[in-house]
Amino acid sequence: MRGQVSELEDRLSAWVKDALASTWDRRNGQKVPEPADLTLKNEAVDLDAVVLYADLADSTDLVTSRSALFAAEVFKTYLFCAAQIIRSMGGVITAYDGDRIMAVFIGDSKNSNAAIAAYRIEWAVEKIIQPAIQAQYPKNTYVLKQKVGIASSPVTAVRTGVRNANDIVWVGNAANIAAKLAALKSGYSTYITEAVFKMLNDKAKKKNDGMSAIWTDLGGVQTFGRVYGTTYWRSP
């Protein structure tokens, strides 16, 4: 046993020293990379990105107060609808984490596309998933709530893990802030940073009738700076 521990220690020490000493191969990306696009060595891709996190609210209560299979149905339907909508708006799904999904948007319309994806996710919850739950389980009082957080920043994509068990880690403020926005307890379904808000086009900032602005300026929230929130939903 001692020999196995010593062998593992030697292997880990050698890998860490090599990783820290190796020169980074860093490049600007034109698309969101897949794990296969990067090596497990020091290779990184830089992107100017918008990150979206969609998070099922109160999932702990759902799991503890309902049957496991009912909770699984809620998880599956929410994540499926969110994923399909994200892809329809040009987003690339980068991770599933329990009851939430992370996506990256790039390109000239990345801010607006992410915001419209958030509207459509809320639409799917209100007009597709919740009615279907009520129809299937008429005595069930569960009401699905969710939140989407959106933030922008330069991000660096790095592949990490071991052979046959690895993924991309996204290093940058956008991923961290988007996840925290999606966890806010205020009564909005979508939150965006001021930087994202300033880059929204008219289609993303106004209702379909083109008259009323839909975003509420929430002021400074925690350490995120100025944040905007909305309960707005929009059908495709």
Span of the ends, CA to CA: 60 Å
Taken in chain order, the helices and strands follow as: HEEHHEEHEEHEHHEE
CATH 4th-level superfamily? Nucleotide cyclase, GGDEF domain
Regarding CATH, which class? Alpha Beta
The total count of strands amounts to: 9
Return the average pLDDT rounded to an integer.
89
* Beta fraction: 25-35%
Structural class: alpha+beta
Spans of at least 5 consecutive residues whose pLDDT stays below 50 are none
Largest sheet descriptor: 9 strands, mixed
CATH topology (fold) name: Alpha-Beta Plaits
Number of domains: 1
> How big is the Rg?
20 Å
Specify the number of helices.
7
Shape: globular
The amount of helix comes to 25-40%
What's the architecture in CATH terms?
A: 2-Layer Sandwich
Describe the structure.
The chain has helices at 2-21, 59-65, 68-88, 110-136, 173-182, 194-198, 202-205, and strands at residues 25-28, 43-56, 92-97, 100-105, 146-162, 165-171, 190-193, 216-220, 226-230. The protein has 236 residues and is α+β, with helices and mostly antiparallel strands. The protein has one domain (24-230): Nucleotide cyclase, GGDEF domain (Alpha-Beta Plaits, 2-Layer Sandwich). Strands 1, 2, 3, 4, 5, 6, 7, 8 and 9 form a nine-stranded mixed beta sheet that branches. Strand 3 (92-97) and strand 4 form a beta hairpin. Helix 3 (68-88) packs antiparallel against helix 4 (110-136). The longest helix has 27 residues, at 110-136. The chain is globular, with a radius of gyration of 20 Å.
